[in-house]
Amino acid sequence: MNTILLVDDDEYVINGLLKHIPWTDMGVRIVGTAADGADGLEKYRELRPDFVITDIYMPVMDGFQLTEEIHAIDPGVPIVILSGYDDLANARKAVSKGVHHFLLKPPSIVEIEFVVREVLQLLNESHERDELLASYLQQQDIVQRSMKDAFFRDLLSTSYRMDELPSTRIAFMGLPVMSTVQVLTLSLVRPDASARREERDWQLLRFGTGNIIREMLSESLGDVPHLTAEVLEYSDQEFVVVFLGDPVQGECSQKFILELSDGMLDNILQYMKLSVLAGLGTVRDGYEHLMDSYLESRNAVEIAEMNGWNRVYAYSGSDSSEPEKSVSMDEVRHLHDAIFQKQWQHAIELWSRLRSGMTGGGVPFPVCKGVCSGIVSTLWTSSMASDPQSDSPGFGLEESLLQLNRFGSVRQMLEWMDDTVARTIAQIREDQVGKKSHALVDRVITEYIEKCYHEEISLEKIAANLHVNRNYLSQLFKRVTGEPFVTYFNKYRIRKAIELIGTGKYMVYEISEKVGFQNSTYFSQVFKSITGYSPSEYDR
């Protein structure tokens, strides 16, 4: 329903308009009234009616001044002048001020209805034009986005000559006719924990990731007029960002694009808790070379798979000419022999050497998988041989081989192999000596916890010093002691702290430092969680 503001200093006129005009029947509502032009302007700003009916001669501000002020805010607002003076000069002035109708007092109900309906028709036509234009622009935007998506997808997989590109289509999509192109590929890492999620949960994570990418591009590229970007959801786990730059200033954007890309990875990891493999192709001149930059970015992603997540790997042409690397079969045979002969330290050294060769890149993924499958089979056989009576050796062969087939990158597979090799060899060693892991845990307690409790030590550092896998040592420690390493370690430190409190010689912060806590507040929190008292309350 349209709204009207009535402005007149004659209360009798206002009341008459309110009581006798069938506003509701005409589809309008009186949203407010005002007694002078200044009041009318304030009411207009507050209520924003669709149009205004106003007298000319009023105190403070007349109708013409009010019309000027309203049109300064919104030039399209219809104004109807209602005046008791039959003055042709006023009518001319009203037209020059942008007034739509000029009614003489006292107007008849029929006259007012005629004028109001005419203004309403004008408003509705204007609204229909606005809605039609908005709909057209919206549809055009949807069509442009759809065309852009199809255009860039085509360029990622098909090579074109410059004269084969549709220049009119490029112009319609609002893209620069001449542009440099550079592709950033972001491949989301979907670990086993995510793979087991409901598909809907994964799609929500993917949707949120897309929003982060687009928001960062929108915010960051707003101040870089010579650089734009298009985002493609290329697959269920892959986003492709196409940077379009000014051919003259494109080289100036390289550092900026790398920093922006690193920022994207940080935000995706922070807010979506997802790791990303990221590869950046080189800058190319023209849309016809987009596929080249994309293939380079994919090559860089493959390097990321073998080296590290959550950082951008920029493509380096030096790698493209290098021959494909291979694994030394002699080293593989030596490793198998060392496992069968139970030369465990030698086996660990051989595995480390073999792993380094596969980690450096260049070794085909299927070759790496085949080598790892053979090592897993040999470890399983040796595990069975070390304890023939056991129905359940260190791991299940079939399950482990299936796990190997699920990995999508060399890096993931080698990390899993590190844990499997270390855990299996440690288990076989324990079975051989019959100590069931107690010796290793006793060593952690006596050589590190009891001797180095006042230093900054972690299970990761201890595992490195003992040449065992950190996850395996953590599980082993909890199984033997019944408590996680951190809990056991903190309890031992607190016992030492209680001994120092008993001497009465030290302040709380001094005791905190002496038992290895650098932050006295955190020390107090741990102390209370274990004893039920704060350090200052304990000896009272």
UniProtKB/TrEMBL annotation:
Keyword flag Transcription: yes
One annotated GO molecular function: sequence-specific DNA binding
CDD domains in alphabetical order: REC_YesN-like
BP-aspect Gene Ontology terms: phosphorelay signal transduction system
Residue list for modification 4-aspartylphosphate: 55
Gene3D superfamilies reported for this sequence: 3.40.50.2300, Homeodomain-like (1.10.10.60)
Residues annotated as domain Response regulatory: 3-120
Domain HTH araC/xylS-type: 443-540
InterPro entries linked to this entry: CheY-like_superfamily (IPR011006), Homeodomain-like_sf (IPR009057), HTH_AraC (IPR018060), HTH_AraC-typ_CS (IPR018062), Sig_transdc_resp-reg_receiver (IPR001789), Tscrpt_reg_AraC-type_HTH (IPR020449)
Glycosyltransferase recorded as keyword: no
Keywords linked to the UniProt accession: DNA-binding, Phosphoprotein, Transcription, Transcription regulation
Protein name per Swiss-Prot or TrEMBL: Response regulator
Organism listed in the record: Cohnella endophytica
